[in-house]
Amino acid sequence: MKILVCISKTPDTTTKVSFTDNNTKFNSDRVQFIINPYDEWYALVRAIEIKEKSNAHVTIMNVGGADNDVIIRKALAIGGDDAVRIDAEADDAFFVADQIAQFLKTEPYDIVFVGKETIDYNGSQVGGMIAGLLDLSFISLASKLDVDGNTATLERDIPGGKEIVTVQTPFVVSASKGMAEARIPNMRGIMAARTKPVKVLPAFASERLTSIKQYALPKEKAGPKMIPSDNPEELVMLLHNEAKVI
Amino acid sequence: MSVLVFVEASEGKFKKPAFEAVTYGAKIAAMLGVETHALCIDEADEAELRSLGDYGANKLWFVKNELFKNFDPLVFSKVIIQAEAQTNSDVLVLIQSYNGKAIAPVLAAKLRAGLVSGALDLPRIENNSFLVKKNVFSGKASATYEMHSAKKIISLMPNSIIPEKTVNNVELVELKPEIADTDFKIKIKEVVKASGTTTLSDAEIVISGGRGLKGPENWAMLEEMANILGGATACSRPVADIHWRPHTEHVGQTGIAIRPNLYIAIGISGAIQHLAGVNGSKVMVVINKDPEAPFFKAADYGIVGDALEVVPKLNEAFRKFKLGN
Question: What is the mean pLDDT of chain B?
Fold first, then answer.
């Protein structure tokens, strides 16, 4: 079985976000970049768990420049067998999905993993777009995945509960919380990752359908209205009369 | 040209996000001077379908087919594309719901349409640019996207606009897609649903607790508050990680992102990752014994005090208020 895990590079979760060039560019100065948590903690780790049980081959996929090799090596240290980096700027979901879809046309995989969304652009788009471009089944927001031969059983988040579904390979799955437990790469993994193959491919011809014109930071709040702890009635009145939410 | 809105019903009824989406679609249609079409694949009776007309849909396309109790984004996209072709739609609106998140990108790829997921506001059209605003960095900032494609898909974040009724006559048209059982490659084996309680992502009032509550046994008073106010309960990540509460209640950057009208955070310090999941709330109340808790900076109302002392008194006040109304 061949598994492709698509990873994205995102700012660390504790990043204080700011912008430059008149709020048109993300300020990456002194920002620590990581593998998008959904891609790493859930998608990648689950893929590795499947590999450990069933001898699957796990390839890491990333669309990005040479500075992404750091996160690619980390994914290999966690347990990926090899990696493919498509050398292009990942600035539009359709463009990224089209790169991966065109790669998959040349080299098919049985399961394509993505995280449920990236924590920077929160698009939740690339996985579904790959599926749409290749007419593959797409299971979104899956919190559990088991494979038995060509059949996979998944749990998918739905409002107020879960849906248990089955699907045949090949398919695309977006991983949400619960699919696996995050792993920390060990020294052996880190050493092994140094010599694992990372293939760099030139970008496929495609197009970008969206671009960001302007960023904005939320307005700073004036500070809360403080209510003495022995007067909860005042809070109730404010919520009713002023905020009008109860 | 027209605007096509894909709406979802739950157990035969439309919820607020459906009315928001139709209102949103109708406003875009008015901006472009075109008609508004709505498409519903879920089961809903005629009166329920007609109710979408009140929010500005000129024509409502419905599908009556038991097969669609299954969910497969490829098949749903196929039906939407059929409606899109019949209505000659250039702008498609979906809801940023669980199913909407699955369908919208598949649809976008098939139509080679730009997609903005989780739009917060009506698009702006400036010098022929089509601009849509959404949250980025998990709510730490917003971004205005320019859509370059001829077809445009917007999935609307629930609770972002207010549904507006208009006087309007809606025409109902049945759409009969050629879909067979074998088209559904994803088979539903079982549906597990918590019954009776308001789901967290739908709740307009959310009562959330953190480690300041000292133990899972103290959640009863939060559940009581949720009951009095008709809300849902939630928790911070540490609380879910130490199994005081189920992970399905974890709100934050790596949990569920919510946008209720009222968020009451009790005993939560307000780490940046937690704020990222709740900063879409309209009004935030923070109760914490530490006056320096960072959450107070993001709050609208604050009480400094021990949760175990403040909450029972607050519940009493809420109960009196509810009785008086």
Answer: 94
Q: Chain A to chain B, count of Cβ pairs less than 8 Å apart? A: 273
Six-digit token string for B202: 């739908």
Give the B window 223-252 contacts with A, CB below 8 Å: 229, 247, 250
In chain B, whose CA is at the least distance from the CA of A167? Answer: B186
Q: Do A94 and B145 touch (CB under 8 A)?
A: no
Report helix, strand or coil for B300. coil
User: ω before B291 within 30° of 0 (cis)?
Assistant: no
- B147 to chain A: closest CA residue: A210
Q: What is the pLDDT of residues A71-106, one digit of tens each?
A: 999 999 999 999 999 999 999 999 999 999 999 999
Site from A34, A105, A227 to mutate, B interface, most B CB atoms within 10 angstroms: A227
What letter represents residue B271's amino acid? A
Res B196 pLDDT > 80: no
Residues with Cβ within 8 Å of A198's Cβ and at least 6 positions away in sequence, in order, are: A69, A72, A73, A76, A82, A83, A84, A85
A93 and B105 in contact by Cβ < 8 A? Answer: yes
What Å distances lie between residue B213 and A203, B229, B230, B267, CA to CA?
52, 20, 21, 6
What lies within 8 Å, CB to CB, of B186 at 6+ separation is A137, A139, A165, A166, A167, B70, B71, B72
Q: Phi/psi of residue A182, each to 5°?
A: -55, 145
The domains of chain B, with CATH numbers, are: 2-183 (3.40.50.620), 205-324 (3.40.50.1220)
What confidence tier does B103 reach under pLDDT thresholds 50, 70, 90? very high
Cβ atoms of residues B59 and B40 within 8 Å:
no
Contact B209, B182 (CB under 8 A): no
| CATH architecture assigned to A2-216 | 3-Layer(aba) Sandwich (3.40)
Spell out the domain ranges in chain A: 2-216
Question: A119 and B201: CB-CB below 8 Å?
Answer: no
B chain contacts of residue A145, beta-carbon cutoff 8 Å: none
